[in-house]
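Blinded run. Sample ID left blank on purpose so nobody reads anything into the name before looking at the predicted structure. Input follows.
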Amino acid sequence: MKIAHILAQKPSSTGSGIYLSETIRAFAEEGAEQALVAGIAPGEEYRFPDGVGFFPVVFETEGLPFPVCGMSDQMPYKATRYRDMDADMVQAFYRAFDDAVDRMLAQMQPDLVICHHLYLLTAHLAMRDWPCPIVGISHNTDIRQFQRIPLEREAIARGIARLDRVLALTGAQADTIAQVYGIPRDGIDIIGTGYNDRFFTRGDMARKKPHSIAYVGKLWKAKGVPNLARAIELLPDEYADVQARLVGGYSDEAERDWILDVIGSCKRKCEYLGVVSQEDLIRVYREAEVFVLPSFSEGLPLVVLEALACGCKVVLTDLPGLRDWLARSAPGAPVVFVDAPVDAATGLPNEGDFPRFERELARAIERAFRMELPEYSVEHLSWRSVCRRMLAAESG
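Blinded prediction complete.
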């Protein structure tokens, strides 16, 4: 099978970039011939499995004189916000990606085109004539952009409606896509997320450190990192030996410095490790008793599957779709949910609810510490299984 992947931003660093890279690797293991069109900054190099043709769209050039576009307003690299794009920037964006797609098609006639994000680029490319089905995957941030800013909204809606299939991570996300973009719910397939089952395994469970916590994600207020530090401080005295390790990058230096001050003022041991190698990341998971992701908004975070695969008990905000997907996909998994401090009307964080959230987060962590690790498995949720679901969705 010949598969073309398309992403407007960098094929790394973010959840959607990792999702893309991991599915490319999994398809390569299945013997697929592949090509990738993605945005990069000048001088950047990426390595992909043998046989994957890369057709980069280089930003910050004469034809595309602005940084790579970012699906979130804060990205882990220098990026252009979609809300700041004008008509000339949009047209330059279209021309650059059309040219890269034309170069790709001159070398490979794909059997399937997979576009990431139900947004500007996917909608534009869906209006082209393709020799094969074209599908689009939502990563949640695209829905928020579509809802919150007016950029090309009518054109995006028309383009998304032209896709042969739409792929969602959870059932709740599929319902939202149908409502927001006005497309039939039966045209949306749920494919979930996956993890790399070659590396993320339990290992020696004797290495688990009692009363240890791991967090993996961006150092960001919207991920609930300051709330986690304050919740750790609220744990009863019997957990005075608690130790937390936080892994991940950041987007904004001022916000990073403020969060580091919050972490540094925590009376319990709370350590920020920054960005680490995959080997060190696996070690963090394997040594942690409890993994905590107190985020205010997520699609379907792959870090949860990685943590479960490494034998962690998990504390997670009860965001739309996560509980149902985990119940169906990983029954019996040791997950404790906490109601997010989000305003139901706006979907934005409600800071007035932070004290309640932090108290309940502390109680959830305590409950996880007290839990016996049950029998469960996530081995069937590898990236290869995600790829099989993609192909099943495309074939109807």
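Unblinding after everyone has recorded impressions. The mean pLDDT is 94.
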